[in-house]
Design brief:
It is built from 3 helices and no strands. By secondary structure, it is mainly alpha-helical. The termini are far apart. The protein has a domain at 70-116.
Amino acid sequence: MAAVDWFAQAEVAAPAPAAPRRRRPPAARPTGRPAASVRSRRGPTQRRVRGHIVWMILFALLLFGVVAVNVAVLRAHVAVSRLDDERARLEARNQALASALSAADSAPRIEAAARRLGLIQASGGNTSYLDLTAGR
């Protein structure tokens, strides 16, 4: 098929016949029964429009809920990150304090402080022990 054929006039079929128009129902007969209600043509159209509006409102509320949940999760994540940073800072401070305590409690430091005060280490022969449990 050549490209020229694509742009050629296509054969057009005859238009479809128009649907027969409905006639209005006859006026109510005086049989004692109330006349059947006649539906207006606007009813279904208005109902369809209202239905679309209801669905759009529901969809908008759903999207608002999703955004609200995402904002709440983001705020919670920020709070957790802040707490993690504080925990890491406190752990580092605790390690520094433990190191300072260990250095203050060490035997060489205590011996150096005793020497500065003029104390000397007792010899093994001059050491004696008291038994404090004998009096009980």
